[in-house]
Amino acid sequence: xxxxxxxFGDLHMDAPFTSLSDMEGKPSQRRLDLKxxxxxxxxxxxxxxADLVLVCGDLYEHGYTGKSxxxxxxxxxxxxxxxxxxxxxxxxxxxxxxSYYSEHQWSSxxxxxxxxxxxxxxxxxxxxxxxxxxGPTDPSFINILMHHGTLDMPFASDAFQPISGRQVEEKGFxxxxxxxxxxxxxxxxxxxxFYNAGSPEPLGFDEPGEHGAFITVIEKAPGGKASICAxxxxxxxxxxxxxxxxxxxxxxxxxxxxxxxxxxxAAGRETDLFRITLSGRLTAGIQMxxxxxxxxxxxxxxxLKISDKTQPDYDLESISQEKGLRGVFTRKMLxxxxxxxxxxxxxxxxxxxxxxxxxxxxxxxxx
Length: 367
Known about the structure:
Elements: E1 2-8, H1 26-48, E2 52-55, H2 67-77, E3 85-87, H3 100-103, E4 110-112, E5 118-121, E6 126-129, E7 142-148, H4 165-170, E8 175-179, E9 185-188, E10 194-196, E11 212-219, E12 227-234, E13 240-246, H5 253-267, E14 273-279, E15 281-282, H6 290-296, E16 303-308, E17 311-312, H7 316-320, H8 325-338, H9 343-362
Parallel strand pairs: 1-2, 2-3, 3-4, 6-7, 7-8, 8-10, 13-14, 14-16, 15-17
Antiparallel strand pairs: 1-11, 5-6, 9-10, 11-12
């Protein structure tokens, strides 16, 4: 017995991308990216001649998705008319009265599985379950569980559909296709049967790196142990990249921008979203203009946000030993920073220290 799967989940079609709302057109472009990603996923299903497509929940956003997007999804699934597309609802696309899973006429190859549902794919002797079964599975089949929820995590009251990996393995499942978390899980559990492709298109800076889907081949002799070969394929349109750039030694924003541009080119592409943190120590009186740098680099990325965390290049230890005003002020502020309740408070004290030293030395402060 042998079956080839395309597995993905958590596409979140029509996600609002509120974090980009301050930039005109960017949320709309990201929603278009989601559609293009689904198209590439179906390209993958066609090219790989997948026997089954498993969609592990959160295909769309229940509160935002309109009929036109649902028709687009259906058109994409209709591109593989002879390939069953199996969908389990998630927490963002629940099957409720009046929902698209309940009311929309999906193409004949699309099957919405709920807990207790079993889809049998006869050509490869495969059974796909929409939820855990009470008893053991039949070992003469390749048994696949689809689940959208938490795995082997503290089962707190806010955990969504928690399951135990050991319980799944004890029931004889050969493979568990997971959704809900947007990071990748490969060969999880004691038997290495748990796979989560994560989000095929990242939705924020908390989802770094490449994103895509699994092409998985499962082979099994009746009653034997299944072998799993899962390959991760990147399909995302863009990536979210966090960079910290040390601009020590730069004498102006122009020099810093050139340095940042080189770091961005090494880390990603012009189509990516970047969040840049400027670090390092600058000659007293030198200031970085984050807005000026952003304007200079606006064509280097789809989205760019710059935060300035640089500090003046003062030898605080030496200054604290001075007998004059600078020494007294520095000692007092260092003492106050050491007694701060948290890192944020200490950072604010240190910033005030640097501004104070600049005022003493230069007679003014550039903020």
